[in-house]
């Protein structure tokens, strides 16, 4: 059946292992952390602390269980094993979950501070409104892409490994937004749509329908970010077990578990782009 089967954001975030119920990540340095001028010989040394901030990943456990009736081998085919269609669909569900965790934390509340008690939202300065740059709702436009570039550049976010996460409607919006005669970008957008390449305007473009929508009309939240500014921490990798269930008339259970959490590493490297999907 039609579904997203792969982990679309694979390779475009920081991956880590979390031991215990949570893990703390320290951030050090800032643009304002500058050298001071030396004004005298053998002068008194004035120390300064490196600016720091703290992020937290708090993993959550997830599971999927499927029961196979003892008569299914005769009615449906061979009995499941780790390589069969049931276990494969569990793995597909985990792939989607990884993307969903990253998307949720890119756009949502993150836990910060010394004790993970501070809830930090993506600030308005990192959000491009649905009406940008005018007063009417629009879908994905060149103006919004350029504004995302401007925000990341203004924050001195590294230019390599920048990603644009979008849904199907946004690419069609962009093609309509690019002038077919005057813009040299038109053929680039068409090639992007046909899968001939996956980079445009400084971003690697990754499509997923897992991006959230809200309101009426439907407003899709797309994400522009740089790879090192999103992190996924796994406590345990995906594990699948197949066990008999004598108490369930000899049924077989296929159960998959996965433990993970995610966070933005810094708001400066993530931009939310709101797009009206009815336009």
Overview of this structure, please?
With 279 residues, this protein is of the alpha+beta class. It has helices at 72-76, 85-107, 142-154, 168-177, 185-193, and strands at 14-17, 23-28, 52-57, 60-68, 110-112, 118-120, 127-128, 162-166, 199-200, 203-207, 213-214, 219-226, 230-245, 251-264, 270-276. The strands form 4 sheets. Strands 7, 8, 9, 10, 11, 12 and 15 form a 7-stranded mixed sheet that branches. A 4-stranded mixed sheet has the order 1-13-14-4, with helices on one face. β11 (213-214) and β12 (219-226) form a beta hairpin.
Ordered list of secondary-structure elements with their pairings:
Blueprint: E1 14-17, E2 23-28, E3 52-57, E4 60-68, H1 72-76, H2 85-107, E5 110-112, E6 118-120, E7 127-128, H3 142-154, E8 162-166, H4 168-177, H5 185-193, E9 199-200, E10 203-207, E11 213-214, E12 219-226, E13 230-245, E14 251-264, E15 270-276
Parallel strand pairs: 1-13, 7-15, 8-10
Antiparallel strand pairs: 2-3, 4-14, 5-6, 8-12, 9-10, 11-12, 12-15, 13-14
């Amino acid at each position: 059946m039609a579904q997203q089967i792969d982990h679309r954001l694979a390779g475009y975030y920081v991956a880590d292992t979390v031991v215990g119920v949570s893990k703390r990540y320290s951030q050090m340095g800032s643009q304002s952390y500058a050298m001071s001028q030396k004004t005298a010989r053998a002068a008194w040394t004035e120390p300064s602390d490196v600016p720091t901030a703290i992020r937290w990943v708090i993993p959550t456990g997830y599971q999927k269980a499927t029961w196979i009736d003892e008569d299914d081998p005769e009615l449906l085919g061979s009995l499941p094993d780790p390589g069969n269609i049931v276990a494969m669909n569990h793995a597909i569900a985990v792939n989607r979950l990884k993307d969903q965790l990253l998307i949720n934390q890119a756009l949502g509340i993150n836990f910060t501070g010394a004790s993970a008690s501070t809830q930090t939202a993506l600030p308005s300065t990192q959000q491009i409104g649905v009406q940008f740059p005018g007063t009417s709702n629009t879908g994905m436009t060149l103006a919004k892409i350029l504004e995302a570039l401007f925000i990341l550049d203004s924050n001195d976010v590294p230019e390599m490994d920048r990603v644009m996460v979008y849904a199907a409607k946004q690419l069609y919006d962009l093609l309509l937004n690019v002038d077919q005669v005057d813009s040299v970008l038109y053929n680039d957008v068409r090639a992007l749509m046909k899968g001939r390449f996956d980079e445009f305007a400084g971003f690697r473009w990754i499509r997923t329908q897992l991006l959230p929508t809200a309101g009426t009309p439907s407003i899709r939240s797309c994400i522009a970010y740089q790879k090192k500014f999103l992190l996924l921490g796994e406590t345990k990798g995906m594990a699948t077990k197949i066990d008999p269930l004598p108490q369930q008339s000899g049924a077989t259970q296929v159960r998959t578990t996965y433990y993970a959490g995610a966070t933005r590493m810094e708001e400066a490297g993530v931009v939310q782009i709101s797009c009206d999907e009815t336009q």
